[in-house]
Design brief:
Radius of gyration: 25 Å
Helix content: 10-25%
Number of strands: 29
CATH architecture of the largest domain: Alpha-Beta Barrel
CATH class of the largest domain: Alpha Beta
Structural class: alpha+beta
Low-confidence stretches: none
CATH topology of the largest domain: TIM Barrel
Largest sheet: 10 strands, antiparallel
Distance between the termini: 42 Å
Shape: globular
Mean pLDDT: 95
Amino acid sequence: MLYTNIIHRVDARADSREAMTFQWQAARRLSIPTTTLLTYPALFMDEAIADVEKLRGEADELGLHFHNLQSPRFLERFGTRESAFWLLPQKIRIALLDEMMTAFERRFGHLPKSVGGYIIDAWTLAHIKKTYPTVETAITSCFEEGVKMFYGNNRNWFLFSDGGPWNPYFPSRANALVPAADAEEAIDIVAMPHLNRDMIMALNSRDDLFASHPGNLFRARINEGAECPYLFRFIEAWERQAALNGWSYLNIFVSSPWMSANHWAIGNIDDARTLYTRMLEDLKAREERGTNANTTMDAFGTVFRNRVRPGDATLCHWKDEIKQSKREVVWVVNSHHRCAFDMNRGGALVDFRPYAGRLDGNLGPECPALWNGNYPFLISTEHCGGHWNTAQYASLSNGIHSFTTTDRRTRATVEQTGENAWTFRTETLRIKLGEHTLVLQSTWEVSAGAGIRIRRTVLEYDGDPAALRLTETFLGRPGLHEYPGDLREITLHAAPGTRLPFTYSSEAKKIPDPHAVGADIPSLGLHVALEALTPATEGLLGDGWLFKPCFQLALTYAPKPGEDIITCLTTRPLKNP
């Protein structure tokens, strides 16, 4: 089942309240329940509260949203010009939460079950749950709104939350972007995204333009008047994810200014409102066909708790819904890592965020991270592509000619093989090595565990198989953005017994018959390794250099046609990071 959640926001301005009235009435005509979140200024405006009381139906949910704080009352009460809730000093955050909760209870006779913000860090979520245990669900992050968004918004939008899940999850007490491993580690709140995103554009574009938000699609200029076929393909794409996970969630959060005639990005408000209404009609029709359920944040939170446990994994198989090309990406997230595999690069791992270190991601002037809520990557083609080319991939050689899997586009087939377990494989690749032809099959096994099993099978080869070599390579560097930090903290290891400090020497050390090759990365608090589950003939530890600041791990095998070569990519916490 796809669960769809229409979310509105009550803002104080008169034109925004008129737009909210349009949104609410459009949903009410179709009997679609909504979640409506009130901002700080609206809570203390009698006219806004009167609108809410007049418009809401019995099935509608009310909650709080921690945005649009700045108002004469806010400045007088808290004495700060900081406008971002997630960057407020913790003392002011607590006082603001208390005031908003008290006002909400006074206005409506009960405390909210749902709250939202563009970022809500783990410290704030834990405080909310402890102080206001009625809160069951929270919008906690904007999926992949980081450096690209900052640049794209003229450096005016300090919203850094790359590296977390795209779906609802139970957040860790260590970091709100990290899914908890178990109930003991979890903050007992269902964390939700601000919007669903296009999962290909999340890798190579500003994904805020391509999301579950009709107004944003106008900003992306992907509409023609009130026509936007992409929006309906986007909904269908999230419907398909339910077949792979047993459930799927689509959050459509269109704040009232986006439906206002005064919004800066909307050329024709009638077109925007027509598309919004058509979207609601489409969701209603899907509900009547039985393919989705329209719900509220709180109601979905109950469904989620009954279906999902802390530590579970989620997979997303995404196809190109914009241009409808053959490009595909497979995403996986669990409590150990988040990763993306790009079939346009032969299934290479192109984004890898290992969570083993459980890094502190709290924000504000008291915190080491200050404003940067991104969770670090070890691989990111988005930030370290081109010459640096961080990725995990395979290459083949017959001693004279070679081939790298990243050079071939392919497509994937995904199959659920058990609870929290999936296998996906590429189409078979016919590869020319000089005058000889080789057929390769690549398969990945992913689950809720820390390991990713990579299986390569040479199905056919018409040359001398004794000359064949297959190498699995991991090129990585820790980071938060394009600019590399100091990598001299890293130590490369090979089992048994070889080590190589990272010194920018460009040294490549070869190791015969290794069991594994890996790297200790203290700043991330983790060890990453390629483990040879099939005996390897050679390993390699590669130091980088200043013009290519990344480390290399590699395992080389002597494949025989028909034989599986299995490598496991895994991470674990460092004992003394």
